Write the structure tokens for this entry.
Amino acid sequence: MHMSSILITGGAGFIGVNSARYFASKGWKVTVLDNLSRRGTEDNLQWLKAQAPVQFERADIRDAATVARLVGQTRPDVVLHLAAQVAVTTSVTDPRDDFEINALGTFNMLEAVRNQSPESFFIYASTNKVYGKMDDVAVVERNGRYEYKDLTTGADEMQHLDFHSPYGCSKGVADQYTIDYSRIYGLRSVAFRQSCIYGTRQFGIEDQGWVAWFTIAAVLGKKITIYGDGKQIRDVLHVADLVRAYEAAATHQDQATGQAFNIGGGPDNTMSLLELLAYLRQELKIEIPLQWDKWRPGDQPVFVCNIQKARERLGWQPEISVRDGVKSLSEWVSQNAGLFSWLK
């Protein structure tokens, strides 16, 4: 029997190591590509190697020749492209770097697959930020949180694209290239427009991975900054559920190819910033010091995705509730406080 193989870019990141470990546990041959530039990646890689037999390649997706060589050597059944610059604020400070990693880096990966391994199935981790502020969608305040006035099942993939911030632009460009490479070159490629993903091995920072950041800060007694009024809500998805979605796409390639899918917790798994803080206070039995700041550019008061398409075409849906997910995350942070010494 043919052993399935997967190449994971950004494979030492939070989603990367969780994905690598999962696929390795299912008997896949796993190759991880990462330039180890992000904080926590070295710790993550060490942890991963202790968990699973993975091949590691230190490389940068901005280096077209190297990624082409690696894709040609491994000719993986699946390429899971996670490597990215992930923070909106960083993209505003350094838009060129953001563009080169997210737009050009993804283009390099697509070209590598097209030229070296055209039968590979290509999954791109896009973002709900491609929808921008969604100014055309009415939002109301109900029960101390913002909600869509009419979209009770959340925003679906027909919501029009509106790239806000250099980050939104660079990820959006890559999202559209991924879909178009299926159309124009017949590549088996799919874009996952991911909502807020959280879980263990996530070294959350303020402007990326807020669920993890709030949890880490609360456990370690750090002050938390709320941008806006804290009533903004997101649908949140545990990383274990996300990894199952990648697997579902790989097993339903014909239904996935050339498509974009909104992948998040959906309407059943939403949380406002204030609700998460209240939950952490109750769970950890502590006070959490807060400071307030103004809204950030392109910050949506509400983002909840409609996950019906993924449910119908990929047979996937989230299984881990927000409460259970946050509880396991806070336990992990408490047990691994040493990993966060840089926060002291």
In short: The mean pLDDT is 95. The domain at 5-343 is CATH 3.40.50.720 (Rossmann fold). Residues 1 and 27 are 12 Å apart (CA to CA). The first strand starts at residue 5 and ends at 9.
